[in-house]
Amino acid sequence: MSTVKPVIVFNILFLTLLMQPPPTLPLPLCRSSCGSIAVNYPFGIDDGCGAPQYRKMLNCSTDLFFLTPSGNYKVQSIDYDKQTIAIYDPAMSTCSILQPHHDFVMTDIQSVIIPPSPDTVFALLNCSIDSPVLNHYKSLCFNFSGHSCDELYGACTSFRLFHLLSNSTPPCCFTAYDTVKYMSMNILDCTHYTSVYNTDSLKGVGPLDWLYGMKLSYSVADTGCDRCKRSGGTCGFDIETGVMLCICSSSVNSTRECAAGSAADMAESHTLSSSLQTSVLVLVLGVVFYLIL
Ligand SMILES: *[C@@H]1O[C@H](CO)[C@@H](O)[C@H](O)[C@H]1NC(C)=O
Ligand SMILES: *[C@@H]1O[C@H](CO)[C@@H](O)[C@H](O)[C@H]1NC(C)=O
Ligand SMILES: *[C@@H]1O[C@H](CO)[C@@H](O)[C@H](O)[C@H]1NC(C)=O
Ligand SMILES: *[C@@H]1O[C@H](CO)[C@@H](O)[C@H](O)[C@H]1NC(C)=O
């Protein structure tokens, strides 16, 4: 029965290893996703992450939201190659739901670095005949991809109401972001609006199947973030001064790039490989015990 002993010793050693808590990994300083949406440079969820110009533009509560003075808009997707972000205002009217209007307002910085794309069109609906876009600023209205604004009154259950109530077709206008940027809905004298994006690809597609929401086009200044990323860091900034930082781990911030071995993911792989070393050691010890006893 002497062979039982080493097996027991081996098993105890093996169980001890299994019961060890997993190696504690450093908490990431900058979350890199919110739900299913990846959050990369220039965006950041946590303060001090991403580019300073985009500070406090995103909120990851239940979902990812884009914050503006007129409200929080749900982020549908971010395309880092095309540098666009699709957002949706749950309080906006669409083809199927009529909701009270409110203005779409961006901060001055937002309207410069992340404005709605040229293929995002605003539809101003139920305008009064005195509306500036029907008079002096008529030239701001256009039709896109063969669609006229009046089509919405016929095709959408929500907007058909205007037609029914007035027993006529109230004026409306497809226009670009600049119009709503410079004129509030009160000045425009229209009671409702909706917005549609990817308008270039909506030829022959009915209003029920349009993409409601907005596509924003953002720009990023080259501040050397690639160099930081290549070295294993995350781009961020000093929240006091706004100066760019390359965040390497919870204890090391460098200005440009991370020194070899200082980045958080390197620390992580180091911890993992050392736990691998431990298990090899335990196995060797087990075999040694087996041979001795
Ligand atoms: C590194 O920068 C981040 C983000 O600005 C900050 O939260 C953290 O305290 C900094 N760490 C050190 C050691 O300076
Ligand atoms: C983030 O969103 C949540 C839920 O919508 C809200 O309660 C919170 O105030 C928001 N934070 C900011 C900074 O807007
Ligand atoms: C449409 O606009 C008129 C004023 O121009 C307003 O009286 C009416 O209530 C609006 N219709 C809806 C459904 O809001
Ligand atoms: C848009 O199309 C409608 C219907 O085809 C037309 O009556 C209207 O003049 C057009 N508007 C513009 C600005 O071209």
UniProtKB/TrEMBL annotation:
Q: What class of enzyme is it?
A: transferase
Topology in the lipid bilayer is annotated as:
Single-pass membrane protein
Pfam families listed in its UniProt record:
GUB_WAK_bind, WAK_assoc
Q: What reactions does this protein catalyze? A: L-threonyl-[protein] + ATP = O-phospho-L-threonyl-[protein] + ADP + H(+); L-seryl-[protein] + ATP = O-phospho-L-seryl-[protein] + ADP + H(+)
Signal sequence range: 1-26
| Protein EC | 2.7.11.1
Q: Molecular function terms in GO for this entry? A: polysaccharide binding; protein serine/threonine kinase activity
Keywords, ordered alphabetically: Glycoprotein, Signal
**Predominant subcellular localization, coarse grouping:** membrane
Wall-associated receptor kinase C-terminal domain residues are 213-250
Q: Name one GO cellular component term.
A: membrane
Residue intervals of the Wall-associated receptor kinase galacturonan-binding domain = 30-89
Where in the cell? Membrane
Q: What is the superkingdom listed in this entry's lineage?
A: Eukaryota
Under the heading PANTHER family, the entry gives:
WALL-ASSOCIATED RECEPTOR KINASE CARBOXY-TERMINAL PROTEIN, WALL-ASSOCIATED RECEPTOR KINASE CARBOXY-TERMINAL PROTEIN-RELATED
- Protein name as it appears in the record: non-specific serine/threonine protein kinase
Q: Name the species this protein comes from.
A: Nyssa sinensis
Q: What is the lineage of its organism?
A: Eukaryota, Viridiplantae, Streptophyta, Embryophyta, Tracheophyta
